[in-house]
Amino acid sequence: MISEQLRQYISFDLFPLTSAICVALSCGLIGNHLVLRRQSMMGDAISHAVLPGLVAAFLLASSRSPMVMFLGAGASALVTVGLIELVKRLGRVEPGAAMGVVFSVMFALGVLMLEQAAADHVDLDASCVLYGQLETLFFVAPAQWNELFSVDTLTHIPTQVSTLVGLTIIVITFKIVFHKELRIASFDPGLATTQGIHAGFITVLLMIMTAACAVASFEAVGSILVIAMLICPASTARLCTDRLSTQIKLSAVFAISAAIIGYLLASFAPEMLDMPSSLNAAGMISVVAGAQVALAAVASPSHGLIAKSRRQRELRKTIDIEDLIGLLYRAKETGSPRSTISSITPAMNTKDINQTITNAARQGLITHTDTTLELTESGLQTGAKIIRRHRLWEGYLVDQANIRLDNVHDIAEQLEHLPTDEPDSDIQIDPHGRPVPPQTH
Amino acid sequence: MNPTLAQSVTPSLKQVHDEMPSLREVFDTVTLQSGFNTNAVIVAATLLGIAAGIIGAFALLRKRSLTADALSHATLPGITSAFLIASAMGLNARSLPVLLLGATISGILGVVCIHLILTYTRLREDAAIGIVLSVFFGIGVVLLSVIQSTATSSAAGLNHFIYGQTAAMLTNDAILMGAIALIAAVIAILAMKEITIVCFNESFASVTGIPASLIDGLILALIVLVTVSGLQAVGLILIVAMLIIPPAAARFWTDRVRMLIILSALIGALSGFVGASVSALLPRKPAGAVIVLCAGSIFVISMLAAPARGVIAQLIRHARLRLRIAIDHTLESKYEYPEQHKKRSFSLRAFLRVKGYTDSLHTTSALTQSGIARGRRVRRNHMLWEQYLISCADIAPSHVDWSVDQVEHILDEDLITRLENEIRASGHHLDSNLQETHS
How far is A231 from B320, CA to CA, in rounded Å? Predict the structure, then answer.
């Protein structure tokens, strides 16, 4: 016996949610390659341009059967891809503009045909092409579990849902079978060709798959979710990793989670806020996918803004300490084992000298009183390394790069912080005539 | 979605009646004599075409065509939130200026988001555009469903911003739209010099004291203005076509910026005018779609027929070059091996005969005096190149023949003299054969 509440969920939410997940997963997987090839907008173009094909198929066959619509939309999508390529090649039009020209003309044609269709009292809704009708995919769930898992239920599955499940299976198979080819053709078409993989053919296959995603999804979720899912999950994943295989797995996770969270928000948030009906689920899923991109852009551990700025702060800290040690080392060379803080401060390019002193002391490089600083044994060694790098760089810049003697100091001041290996060199005097500290082991 | 919307997605300007308009009606409409409201809409659509043509030309030069697409989609959340806020404050939520203000703000927000994504993440422009487009439109769609569930029937009008609708346009709306388009066009013309410099050479612009990023911002702001002014008539999906198609069509006809802008504005104006007029005259012809299809037809004609960059002209040039190469090859081999008679196509023999290089159409026909002269010249160029590539360009002798076959046809006299001098200067002597033909 299925409880009444569960039965209601199955009736109203099971199929829309399944469709949303299927669309998200298949588009998300295909999107990885579009984003890498900088062809993200292809999905946008295709999903707008299916409109005339839909209307034409509908007018010719005068039926709303999904198969007919699928054929019409598919033909339209392929024509669009072909036309874009034609305009780009023959007309030598910039790719973005070529896409814009073709899809907007196709869409305009669709709108006009739709208008004529409306004249014949044909009920074809233009807005569903844009933002879908996920919410209408309900079926009446039976009261018993054993009835739910019977052949009879299968026949009640809406065709949109079975189409989408089929699409997802095809896309996953495509990704697995052509994984190697897709990867090599996305990164290096030239190499792909030399290895006997026809990069152009792979591109065509990818475009067909994109078109299939757009066409199969439009009726359930509308083109807007297709575009969002082609681009957002892949972009989010791209912000989190540098490896393609990880990126693909992550994008699948992001796509599915966006679909679930977005759908739940759209169905249940209005109830909590006391609004009469639910929100548009396709729109909500796009918004969640967008939020994922924003979150990754800020908080991704590898490429997020926070991680980047932390790395930058760490680098700044290291450079400040190295500068301080370098100054103290030079002072020691000229015969003063101790330096006063006030004499060091003007030469340091930092806002907070006290922080730098504390940091250096914590690393055991210096000892300090309230007014004076002194290098420790390990500080001396570090200083020798830094100054050695600095003076060898100066020598290199003067001898090899023909830079004038009075200009090399500032350049070397930056280069000395590069984490290079210990330079192996016999040079003992720098161009200014100062000794190069010997190599330490 | 409510299926009843289907009947009224984009009604045309005219009250629906199904007969064709009379000539008199057509004349009245295109000469602006058929009522003030219709005139205002037609004039506004024409102005919109001009503004979009000019600004779209800059967008094309700056490769920003698809950014315009993202911007126009990004106006939807602005329209819907303006509607929600205005109705919460008890104002007239359907007042056009309020909605357009909302559209402008969210359009600009969209630009800022694209800019932020490009500056602070590793994502490329296409992904940034796609993200902003889909997410902003998604927000708009969600808000639209909020409006439909809370407010009553008053939300229906908002759908027209997506597909565009001229039927419900009031005279004031048309004047507002025309005015915004006019302002955008005037700003674009005033800043033409600076924008052009930035479009072609960003670093030069910076050196001459023109802030490239500021000009870029200006272009994007102008795109937002055009988008907003076209929202009601053309709709936010098709407005991008008015920015992309006219300049792309104009680009086929000219290589000069000034001409490009003028042509693009003309094409835009013509499309706007025709679109709005047709929509006013015929039933169920939504202005936006007709405008775009009109511009699209001009694009197709331009792509095919433009004299220098058009497809037909390119094909003719290509065929001519191939013919010249075929004739040259034939003459060369006939000159070099007069007793050999390869099978050649009839058309090639005919061309040789027409040009006076042979006496008859027969395969075995010998060369005439001028045929011999031309054959000798081709042979000589061939050898010159061969010599040049071997001695001066360090190309292995086995690879030489392959490349000379292709280049010997594009040599001119000056280059040949220079080549001869270069060969002599590099200490190689010219082949006796060459000197002989040269003298």
Answer: 45
Domain count, chain B: 2
CB-CB: which of B63, B65, B121 is closest to A239?
Answer: B121
Domain shared by A221 and A368, yes or no:
no
- Where helices occur in B306-368 by DSSP H, the ranges are 311-336, 346-354
B224 and B367 inside one domain: no
Please state, as a whole number, how many other Cβ atoms lie within 10 Å of the Cβ of residue B256.
Answer: 10
Q: What is the dihedral of CA B241, B242, B248, B251, to 10 degrees?
A: 180
Last residue of a domain, one of B259, B274, B305: B305
In a shared domain, residues A267 and A326: no
**Domain CATH for A271:** 1.10.3470.10
Contact A100 B139 (CB under 8 A): no
Domain range enclosing A269: 4-303
- Residues 351-390 of chain B whose Cβ lies under 8 A from any Cβ of chain A: none
Q: Is residue B286 domain-shared with residue B413, that is, in the same domain? A: no
| Nearest chain A CA: its distance from B274 CA (Å) | 15
Number of H helices and E strands in chain A, helices first, is 19, 3
Question: What is the full DSSP assignment across A375-428?
Answer: E-HHHHHHHHHHHHHHHHHHHHHHHTS---GGGHHHHHHHHTTS-PPPP-----
Interchain contact, B244 vs A232, CB within 8 Å: no
Residue among A59, A105, A104, A52 nearest A77 (CA): A52
Q: Span A319-346, mean pLDDT?
A: 84
pLDDT range class, residue B247, cuts 50, 70, 90 = very high
State how far residue B258 is from chain A, nearest Cα, in angstroms. 19
Global pTM value: 0.83
Going by C-alpha positions, the residue among B130, B20, B357 that lies closest to residue A236 is: B130
Q: What pLDDT, on the 0 to 100 scale, is given for residue A176?
A: 92
Instruction: Decide which of A252, A277, A303 is a domain's last residue.
Output: A303
Is 70 exceeded by the pLDDT of residue B436? no
Same domain? For A253 and A348 the reply is no
Q: In the beta sheet, which residues pair with residue B367?
A: B358
Q: Mean per-residue pLDDT for B86-94?
A: 78
What the block records as the tokens of A126 is 């233009």
| Residue A170, pLDDT above cutoff 80 | yes
- CB contacts < 8 A, A to B, total 240
Q: B365: domain range?
A: 313-438
Tokens standing for residue A18: 């399944």
Alpha-carbon span A63 to B265, nearest angstrom: 43
Question: Cα A274 to chain center, whole Å?
Answer: 36
How many domains are there within chain A? 2
